[in-house]
Specification:
The chain has one domain (6-71, 80-143): NAD(P)-binding Rossmann-like Domain (Rossmann fold), CATH 3.40.50. Helices cover 36% and strands 17% of the residues. It contains 6 helices and 7 strands; from the N terminus they run αβαβββαβαβαβα. A 5-stranded parallel β-sheet has the order 2-1-5-6-7, sandwiched between helices. Helix 4 packs parallel to helix 5.
Length: 145
């Protein structure tokens, strides 16, 4: 994918996204402790975020109720999802970007190594911030010391 077909927000904007976020849905969160998605979810919980794991087969991860997809998260109970953090293959992200738009999320965040100009277009045209190819934990450590 051509990098010039998308761009990340500035570090200042990313810091603001992380500072203002309260609830983060982690799509592709693994129940296996040795997986990166599991460790990042733990990091988010340890930093005080409400972390909602999204995995099609798990019922609970890290003591948090798990949902099979974004649409299944009960908005009336959970409230707004500030960040949808994705651990999925780049080519699998556009439908998740559409789901993030549909639930009114504030930001679509594709983890390090994941980028999709189509997902970026879907998110940004709907007014969501979109961060791609960045680890949320690394950015948190760098920007919110």
């Amino acid at each position: 994918m051509r990098r010039d077909s998308w761009h990340n927000p500035s570090d200042e904007r990313i810091a603001e996204i992380l500072r203002s976020a309260r609830t983060i849905a982690v799509v592709g969160c693994s129940p296996k402790p040795d997986r990166t998605s599991h460790r990042i979810a733990r990091f988010l919980l340890d930093r005080g975020y409400r972390m909602i794991p999204v995995h099609p087969q798990a019922s609970e991860i890290l003591g948090q109720r798990c949902y099979p997809n974004l649409a299944a998260i009960p908005q009336d109970q959970v409230g707004r999802i500030d960040i949808v953090n994705l651990f999925r293959k780049s080519e699998d992200t556009p439908p998740i970007a559409e789901a993030a738009v549909a639930i009114g999320a504030g930001c679509l965040w594709l983890q390090q190594g994941i980028a999709s100009s189509e997902s970026w277009r879907i998110a940004t045209e709907a007014g969501l911030d979109c961060v791609m190819d960045r680890c949320i934990a690394v950015m948190h450590r760098l920007l919110l010391r």
